[in-house]
Specification:
About 35% of the residues lie in helices and about 20% in strands. By secondary structure, the protein is an alpha/beta fold. It has one domain (about 25-325): Alpha-Beta Barrel (TIM Barrel), CATH 3.20.20.70. The strands form two sheets. An eight-stranded parallel β-barrel has the order 1-4-5-8-9-10-11-12, surrounded by nine helices. The protein has a two-stranded antiparallel sheet with strand order 6-7. Helix 2 (about 60-70) crosses helix 3 (about 100-110), helix 3 (about 100-110) runs parallel beside helix 4 (about 145-160) and helix 4 (about 145-160) crosses helix 5. It is globular and about 80 Å long. The structure holds ligand PBG.
């Protein structure tokens, strides 16, 4: 008897055999989305301490950076602003001359073909650092319905500036519907909504809060972001977002949440993104700087894992670097 009957190793016996048996294509630069931070009141770029290689940019330099992103083959940028003025209601998030609004205009002028996504949230703009407006009467809870009105104003102000996609990340109920209605009412039928559908209350966001200067001054975000013990709830959240008019859905964080990516992929046809967050970048970067692991190989493996789980696109602070490592850089 021929034993073993099936020789699985045949398919791994050479580079050609391995390539032939690949179940998913290699990650493309075009699948990646690069986050960019723009800070008001600085004159040169400032490196983020917990994220070596990632910077806050002054608005005057942002178009040049976006051009670099475009040339690298990366598919899109997602913008985060750090304003000078913060107040209780986060009103600097939706002024015409807000930091993100200015950045959108500058990028669209210099690199019109680059897809620009604007993160829609209040946490960088509120003095208390929460993602919404606080209801003083309700023991400091974030007021859902007041907040989604403000988020809709943010989205419309980004659309006025020329954004392609808005990405609401505050995890407020009904935020997608409210934003969709406001966009349509203002004549922005083509602006798309990428919903942070399953955004978990995660300690992996730590370095981002340094970068965006947005840690909550009291309490935490567990009354609006998801509990990481749950996955049925992620399906419910995504279903609601699609019903409310989301064009694409997202899972965040990505590492450690591939089961959620997989479930949403199986449950819905909508384009699916995942957000490999600041803590994921910081961990690998720190280990790489110490020489503990091969950064290029580890990042490529991790990004491929997200694609295998079912993500169409990946938001990652490694986007630009990875684009340089990947072979398929052709724009599509
Ligand atoms: C909220 C927002 C956060 C991130 C993206 N959008 C922070 C938070 O929810 O606390 C985190 C991204 C990261 O960690 O890379 N506007």
């Amino acid at each position: 008897m021929d034993f073993p009957a099936v020789r699985m190793r045949d398919r791994r016996s050479s580079e050609a055999a391995r390539k032939k048996h690949r179940e998913i294509p290699e990650v493309r630069a075009n699948d990646l989305i690069m986050p960019l931070f723009i800070k008001e009141g600085i004159s040169k770029r400032a490196e983020i301490k917990s994220m070596p290689g990632i910077y806050q940019f002054p608005v005057k330099d942002i178009a040049k950076e976006a051009l670099k992103v475009y040339i690298s083959g990366v598919g899109a940028v997602i913008l985060f602003g750090i304003p000078l003025d913060k107040d209780k209601t986060g009103s600097s998030a939706y002024t015409r001359d807000g930091i993100v609004q200015k950045a959108i205009r500058a990028i669209k002028k210099k690199v019109p073909r680059l897809t620009v996504i604007g993160d829609v949230c209040l946490c960088e703009y509120t003095s208390h650092g929460h993602c919404g407006i606080i209801n003083e009467r309700k023991k400091g809870d974030v007021d859902n319905d007041l907040t989604i009105k403000a988020l809709a104003r943010v989205a419309v102000s980004y659309a006025d500036a020329g954004v392609d996609i808005v990405a609401p990340s505050a995890m407020m109920d009904g935020q997608v519907k409210r934003i969709k209605e406001a966009l349509v009412r203002n004549g922005y039928k083509k602006v798309k909504i990428m919903a942070y559908s399953a955004k978990y209350a995660s300690s992996f966001y730590g370095p981002f809060r340094d970068a965006a200067e947005s840690p909550p001054k009291f309490g935490d975000r567990r009354s609006y972001q998801m509990d990481y013990h749950n996955s049925d709830e992620a399906v419910m959240e995504a279903r609601l977002d699609i019903k409310e008019g989301a064009d694409s859905i997202m899972v965040k964080p990505a590492l450690g949440y591939e089961d959620i990516i997989y479930r949403l992929r199986k449950a819905f046809k909508a384009p699916l993104a995942c957000y490999s967050v600041s803590g994921e970048y910081a961990m690998i970067k720190a280990a790489a700087l110490k020489g503990y692991l091969d950064e290029r190989k580890v990042v490529t493996e991790m990004l491929t894992g997200f694609k295998r789980a079912g993500a169409d696109s990946i938001i990652t602070y490694y986007a630009m670097e990875a684009a340089g490592w990947l072979k398929n850089k052709k724009r599509i």
